[in-house]
Design a protein that fits this description.
Pfam families: adh_short
Distance between the termini: 32 Å
Family: Belongs to the short-chain dehydrogenases/reductases (SDR) family.
CATH architecture: 3-Layer(aba) Sandwich
Keywords: Oxidoreductase
Shape: globular
Strand order of the largest sheet: 3-2-1-4-5-6-7
Organism: Arthrobacter ramosus
Bound molecules: NADPH dihydro-nicotinamide-adenine-dinucleotide phosphate
Protein name: SDR family NAD(P)-dependent oxidoreductase
Mean pLDDT: 97
């Protein structure tokens, strides 16, 4: 595989499972030093060891990105270890489904905290370093990839607050793109359809049996590696090319 990211460093949130873990492996295989950020330290350390065994460079950083200080510290640890930050992948997310009527508002707070506030915290902390990399690094470009969802394009009953967060991610991404793109920080959104990960498992058994399990049983969904491939595509374009939006769907999902 072409090592197009040699000499760069990437921070991936939600790297302890699913799409984030696959993205970390993919970017590391292409030569990036990767900072792995999530709450489950054991998972991060196992992944970091795997990446290093494969010849890559990885740093496990335990952090809850809903806490602004922890998100900031994660970025600072990345800079301390790797000296620069070229790529931020805002991937950490939570999907708690169900009707608005009778919902536990605490579930909404948790989703808004991770999917929106967490993304804002890491972006705010990382942006000065990304702008610096776009000026000073040999690549002369830096990247933010925000993992949104098909749920950032289409709303469905029972997905209300998840839809709210992902529509919000899309709006914020495009606004930030316009703010910094001429300084060569590329900002893009990647919207996956169904991917085989732990995402749906955080719902109640009733929600899972009614809303998510039938979908996953009836649809040939994507693998996390399919999304990692999309992230790698976005961050390895020539300097003059910015992928503002990438919508990756299972062929089987209408
Ligand atoms: P997973 O549940 O496998 O991964 C979610 C990741 O987010 C975990 O690594 C988790 O780590 C991390 N995370 C959750 N809360 C926090 C927090 N407070 N601080 C830091 N990290 C946190 O699901 P996916 O891989 O599927 O999800 C990744 C992204 O992809 C999400 O944004 C999701 O919305 C999006 N997506 C997924 C789709 C799918 O079908 N799977 C479809 C469309 C979009 P830990 O628990 O260790 O903190």
């Amino acid at each position: 595989m072409t090592a197009k990211l040699t000499g760069t460093s990437a921070l991936i949130t939600g790297a302890s499972s699913g799409i984030g873990a696959a993205t970390a492996r993919e970017l590391a295989a292409r030569g990036a030093s990767v900072a792995l950020v999530a709450r489950r330290r054991d998972r991060l350390e196992t992944l970091a060891a795997d990446i290093e065994n494969d010849g890559g460079t990885a740093l496990a950083i335990e952090a809850d990105i809903t806490d602004r200080a922890q998100a900031q510290a994660a970025v600072e640890k990345t800079i301390e270890r790797f000296g620069q930050l070229d790529i931020l992948v805002n991937n950490a997310g939570l999907m708690l489904l169900g009707p608005v009527l009778g919902a536990d508002p605490e579930d909404w707070t948790r989703m808004i905290s991770v999917n929106l506030q967490g993304l804002l915290h890491t972006t705010h902390a990382a942006l000065p370093h990304l702008l610096k990399a776009a000026e000073d690094s040999p690549r002369q470009v830096a990247d933010i990839v925000n993992i949104s969802s098909i749920a950032g394009r289409v709303a469905w009953g029972g997905y209300g607050v998840y839809n709210l967060t992902k529509f919000g991610v899309n709006g914020f991404t495009e606004s930030l793109r316009q703010e910094v793109t001429r300084r060569h920080v590329r900002v893009g959104v990647l919207e996956p359809g169904g991917v085989d990960t732990e995402l749906a498992s955080h719902n109640t058994p009733e929600i899972q049996s009614g809303m998510t399990t039938p979908f996953y049983e009836q649809t040939e969904v994507l693998a996390p590696a399919d999304i990692a491939d999309g992230v790698a595509y976005m961050v390895t374009r020539p300097r003059h090319t910015s992928i503002a939006e990438l919508w990756i769907m299972p062929t089987d999902q209408a």
